[in-house]
User: What shape does this take?
Amino acid sequence: MTAPDTRHLMYIANRPPIVMTEGRGSLLRDTAGREYLDFVQGWAVNCLGHCPPVLVEAIAEQARRLINPSPGFFNDRAAELAELLSRRSFGGRVFFANSGAEANEGAIKLARKWGAKQRGGAYEIITAERAFHGRTLATMSASGKPQWRELFEPKVPGFVKVPLNDLAAVQAAVSERTVAVMLEPIQGEAGVFPADTEYLRRLRAFTAERGLLLILDEVQTGIGRTGTLFRYQAVGVEPDVMTLGKGLGGGLPISALLAREAVCCFEPGDQGGTMNGNPLVAAAAIAVLREVLRPGFLDQVVALGRRLRDGLERLAAAHALGEVRGEGLLLALALRDLSGPEIVRRAMDRGLLINSPREDSLRLMPALNVSAAEIDRCLAVLAEVLRELRAAPAGS
Ligand SMILES: *Cc1c(COP(=O)(O)O)cnc(C)c1O
Assistant: This one.
């Protein structure tokens, strides 16, 4: 097959000159017929791997029944999915959107509306330095990515940044304008930096005592990625508002904003979206959740995560690298002196796809149903690359 002409796509990222065309499980294939072992999985969205039969069948069946009746009507799949998410989390209600950014944008709007109605017009949201909440203007403003500081000015006002894991910094940042604290339980895009359990517990107590909302962005950590359905469940801290995305649709664009009943203060006209909660993507998410909630599935994620973590720790010890960060199947390896992008390139040459969210770290986020053999193969390729780099560093 000849590679298609990609020049009509807007230039928004440096991508390798390969074009993907097919996938199955942990394997991804390009137009030249080369196969890759995929430990990126569309940035942790394909939680069941590429084209899993349960998802393909759910989509095909729903596509034959109804794709989009308009958001002006209820549909059976969205209602079923909302009930499932509500029952499996902290109750309350659900608003569906199409991307993580859009779910977070909805969380910000909900907090501002709640502040206007319940907190005398308070609107400020305290967020974390290095946080990633998405690429709409408001979610970029809420994010703490250093490279974005000067970009697309002026930003949306109303966000105050504090360092992660520093409760005193949150306490000092609170004023009568504050309505909420918003963070990721594990900062994914920043390079997999967990919020400490004790910090989250004390933050929950503090926000409750001050009448502030706690918003957890579980777009990356949710849907089993860290070994529990939602990360907050492992930490024992219940948020007032939670957002989901990535793994929820198993690769299809659906995200969700969940909020405790008392916080659900949108009125007709405040929030919506033409594509939101259509039955096609909702059916996909139901199929994903049924799979992830099957008895034993999450135990398996924990076991596979431990296998990958153990292997990474062995590599770190053998090649004088740094710590392993993260939980479940959201893991990062600190590299000390080696270059992440260089390792990513060399791994790709050997048919392994991994990601380097920052120069000094690798991130691995395979399918949640990856096999033990695939984990071992990933570790073997990484060991080869590390041996090669330690023997002859890049550029020498
Ligand atoms: C990926 C991500 C987002 C943005 O999701 P999109 O679907 O790309 O808009 C938001 N928050 C977190 C924590 C993420 O990892």
About this structure: The CA atoms of residues 236 and 363 lie 25 Å apart. Residues 99-101, 104, 132-134, 184, 188-189, 217, 219-220, 245-246 surround pyridoxal-5'-phosphate (CB under 6 Å). The radius of gyration is 21 Å. The first helix runs from residue 41 to 44.
